[in-house]
């Protein structure tokens, strides 16, 4: 696609982070930005943990719908930032009956 200045610009999906080459540029872009609450995947920049979509929005100055969290994740990994995936769901534990709990406390397991 040709922009107003006659320059060729890529706007195809997946090329949003192609020109992101320096870790220092990310650090500078995120300086002074307050992290939002992390619910899903995140990246650690400096001493702060940011949601991937927030980082992508700040760096690219584009709407969060224009890129995927996976694209941000790949770009941040390539630059050497620590990324965290989705938190694992806790495995539901089987609750013990009062008899089983008392038996366990006495060290004599009872099977029901």
Describe what you observe in this structure.
With 112 residues, the protein is an alpha+beta fold. Helices cover 32% and strands 10% of the residues. It has four helices and three strands. Strands 2-1-3 form a three-stranded antiparallel β-sheet. The radius of gyration is 23 Å and the shape is elongated. The chain starts with 22 loop residues before the first helix and ends in a 6-residue tail after the last helix.
Strands, count? 3
Q: Unreliable stretches, pLDDT < 50, 5 or more residues?
A: 1-14
Distance N to C terminus: 70 Å
Tally of helical segments: 4
Beta-strand fraction estimate: 5-15%
Q: What are its keywords?
A:
single chain, 112 residues, alpha+beta, three-stranded antiparallel sheet, 32% helix, 10% strand, elongated, disordered N terminus
Short description:
This protein is of the alpha+beta class. It contains four helices and three strands, in the order αββααβα.
How would the blueprint of this fold be written?
Layout lengths: L22 H8 L11 E4 L2 E4 H9 L8 H10 L3 E3 L13 H9 L6
Antiparallel strand pairs: 1-2, 1-3
């Amino acid at each position: 696609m040709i922009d107003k200045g006659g320059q060729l610009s890529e706007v195809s999906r997946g090329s949003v982070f192609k020109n992101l080459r320096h870790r220092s540029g990310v650090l500078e872009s995120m300086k002074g930005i307050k992290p939002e609450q992390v619910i899903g995947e995140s990246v650690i920049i400096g001493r702060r943990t940011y949601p991937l979509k927030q980082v992508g929005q700040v760096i690219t100055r584009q709407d969060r719908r224009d890129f995927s969290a996976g694209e941000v994740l790949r770009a941040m990994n390539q630059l050497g930032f620590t990324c965290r995936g989705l938190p694992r769901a806790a495995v539901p534990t089987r609750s013990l009956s009062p008899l089983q709990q008392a038996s366990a406390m006495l060290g004599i397991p009872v099977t029901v």
